[in-house]
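Review form for a predicted model. The reviewer records the input and the model, then writes brief findings.
Reviewer: anonymous (R2)
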Amino acid sequence: MKQVAIIGPTASGKSDLAIQFAQKMDAYILSIDSLSIYKEIDIVSAKPSQEELLSVKHFGINELYPDAYFSVDIFRDLYQTSLQRCQADGKNLVIVGGTSFYLKSLIDGLSKIPAISEDVKKRVKQKMHNLQAVYKELVQIDSAYMHKIASSDRYRIEKALLIYEASSLAPSAWFLQNPPQKIIQNLPIYNIEVSREVLRERIRKRTHKMFAMGLVDEVSFLEQKYTRLPHAMGAIGIVEVLEYLDAKVSKEQMLENIITHTAQLAKRQQTFNKTQFRELISAPLEDLEGMV
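Model under review:
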């Protein structure tokens, strides 16, 4: 069985390239995207179309509701599930997405997390209503670990609390007892190279397309159904629309803010990809299309 990965900044054409690769390789696709994993976050996440999702089997898309517990460990489990399905069906696997941290975690290894019961989830959810009190409690339990985490970082604070509540161990002690285990080895990684000028123009066009598709209505629906508390509601594209709904910015300023923040994200993604992976097959999109 053959596995390849495709990475690149947002709006660089990864999804289309992944479908081309998958069709040529007779493969399934595993998405590593921190927003596409959520149901009902469709326009903001720029998911593949329904037609594209039907053309090749995808994993990692529409797996969770926005208020569900989320962890990078979920991607490890999704990878194992997709791998088993590929092996059973005689398929290869294409891993694709903009959240390259998840790919790096699979390559470098992940520490397992303790089994988290429904009771623990409910207890943690209740405690998380007072973020500062939770942060203070965790600093007392494990000051070395928590000093690496900002007091406003709801996602990482919640993860630390879940580990503590589920294992009765400080996070540092848990990770010491459960060192990372490598999951993927010898994986070819194709990195899409694109100039920042071209990328910004693509981001601009995509942002206006998202607005025309009903971006504001989608965010309004998500806020009404899930409130602003879930981690996913802090994503680029959602935060800016919420500012618009609060009458803090005009429609034009909202769109410009999305474009600017998305371009900044793309820059961070490009830097991460170049510095965090040892061997990359980097080339413009049109050159990569003929490599498989």
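Findings: Residues 196-269 form a domain with the Helix Hairpins fold (CATH 1.10.287.890).
Further findings: The chain has a mean pLDDT of 94.
Recommendation: see findings above.
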